[in-house]
Amino acid sequence: MRSGPRTVVVDDSRFMRGLITDILESGGVEVVAEAADGAEALSVVADVDPDVVTMDVEMPRMNGIEAVERLMREHPTPTLMLSAYTEDGAEETFAALDAGAVDFFAKPGGEVSMGVSRMEEQLVETVRSVAEADISGGRTSGAAVATATHGGTATETRPVGGVEPNTTVVIGSSTGGPDAVERVLSALPGGEDLRVLVVQHMPEAFTGRFADRLDAACELDVAEATDGARIGRGEVLVARGGEHMKVTRYRDGRLRVQLIDEDRGQNVRPSVNVTMESAAATIDDPLVGVILTGMGDDGATGVRAISEAGGRIIAQDEATSVVYGMPKRAAATGRVDTVLPLDDVAGGIVGGAS
């Protein structure tokens, strides 16, 4: 069993601290210290210099949001928020992500859609992933030259032309994705002939709030997906947590989706693969697949399907990915056409038509 990462567990409940510690240590994660609130967490982190912190949101003296803000200023450390599985918890969690937290996880013992053992495995996996996150804040922007890796051949590419009529974009992301997706969508012009599907690994209680945030941040009209929802030019659907989003129909620039409440052989729900594969099978107009930061390999099968259907594939580069898991697995398929820094992805979508 792998050792590490060195972890500090922060929660005002002694029972919850013990439960989280037991889960992590049984999964081979080393818990080096615990703290009962944000103020104590700052002192403990400064003393033990951990690889990762798990942080409760609601705590006395100093809550998790303020603690993350202080931590990122005083002792930057990758932080995973453990949030209540509620709409209120979603609001607070997004505030913590804005403050600098890397990712979040529904608290053990909450109402979750996966079994207890699977939830415990996922928590351990997420802590390990967050511990490896790059929180240096370095960003690459401007008219950077991208590298085309399709078929394993590196070539210099530059955006040319404009977006093709009736272009559909499918964006997949996980760890670090909420901020990455927002930055991509907010950079897309509202006047282009685009319709966008977003698949972000996120629990059901959070995706509606995520869609609202995206809608406020960009020129496109963004909504959480519902079963049978239709979108056209200038519209975006965000996959609902706990259900796959499948494209079932496409005609005259409008597409329709179905929500599926079953695994479909995937280890996450919603799955990027399900949406990308169904889009590739259904849409006969221009199609672009985008893989952003995230752990795991979801999307690798989907990019193959889009590429085989004649679509383009864009992957976020390692330097700007919080976790270079999903983009790396996508690139390993040999189907990625363009690798771009996060702040150039929107330009690649709009200007990459040939």
Automatic annotation (TrEMBL):
<keyword id="KW-0489">Methyltransferase</keyword>
<keyword id="KW-0378">Hydrolase</keyword>
<dbReference type="InterPro" id="IPR000673">
    <property type="entry name" value="Sig_transdc_resp-reg_Me-estase"/>
</dbReference>
<feature type="domain" description="Response regulatory">
    <location>
        <begin position="6"/>
        <end position="122"/>
    </location>
</feature>
<dbReference type="GO" id="GO:0050568">
    <property type="term" value="F:protein-glutamine glutaminase activity"/>
</dbReference>
<keyword id="KW-0597">Phosphoprotein</keyword>
<keyword id="KW-0963">Cytoplasm</keyword>
<dbReference type="GO" id="GO:0008984">
    <property type="term" value="F:protein-glutamate methylesterase activity"/>
</dbReference>
<dbReference type="InterPro" id="IPR011006">
    <property type="entry name" value="CheY-like_superfamily"/>
</dbReference>
<dbReference type="GO" id="GO:0032259">
    <property type="term" value="P:methylation"/>
</dbReference>
<dbReference type="Pfam" id="PF00072">
    <property type="entry name" value="Response_reg"/>
</dbReference>
<dbReference type="GO" id="GO:0005737">
    <property type="term" value="C:cytoplasm"/>
</dbReference>
<dbReference type="InterPro" id="IPR008248">
    <property type="entry name" value="CheB-like"/>
</dbReference>
<dbReference type="GO" id="GO:0006935">
    <property type="term" value="P:chemotaxis"/>
</dbReference>
<comment type="similarity">
    <text>Belongs to the CheB family.</text>
</comment>
<feature type="active site">
    <location>
        <position position="201"/>
    </location>
</feature>
<feature type="domain" description="CheB-type methylesterase">
    <location>
        <begin position="165"/>
        <end position="354"/>
    </location>
</feature>
<feature type="active site">
    <location>
        <position position="298"/>
    </location>
</feature>
<keyword id="KW-0808">Transferase</keyword>
<dbReference type="Pfam" id="PF01339">
    <property type="entry name" value="CheB_methylest"/>
</dbReference>
<feature type="modified residue" description="4-aspartylphosphate">
    <location>
        <position position="56"/>
    </location>
</feature>
<dbReference type="InterPro" id="IPR001789">
    <property type="entry name" value="Sig_transdc_resp-reg_receiver"/>
</dbReference>
<dbReference type="InterPro" id="IPR035909">
    <property type="entry name" value="CheB_C"/>
</dbReference>
<comment type="function">
    <text>Involved in chemotaxis. Part of a chemotaxis signal transduction system that modulates chemotaxis in response to various stimuli. Catalyzes the demethylation of specific methylglutamate residues introduced into the chemoreceptors (methyl-accepting chemotaxis proteins or MCP) by CheR. Also mediates the irreversible deamidation of specific glutamine residues to glutamic acid.</text>
</comment>
<dbReference type="GO" id="GO:0000156">
    <property type="term" value="F:phosphorelay response regulator activity"/>
</dbReference>
<keyword id="KW-0145">Chemotaxis</keyword>
<protein>
    <recommendedName>
        <fullName>Protein-glutamate methylesterase/protein-glutamine glutaminase</fullName>
        <ecNumber>3.1.1.61</ecNumber>
        <ecNumber>3.5.1.44</ecNumber>
    </recommendedName>
</protein>
<feature type="active site">
    <location>
        <position position="174"/>
    </location>
</feature>
<dbReference type="GO" id="GO:0008168">
    <property type="term" value="F:methyltransferase activity"/>
</dbReference>
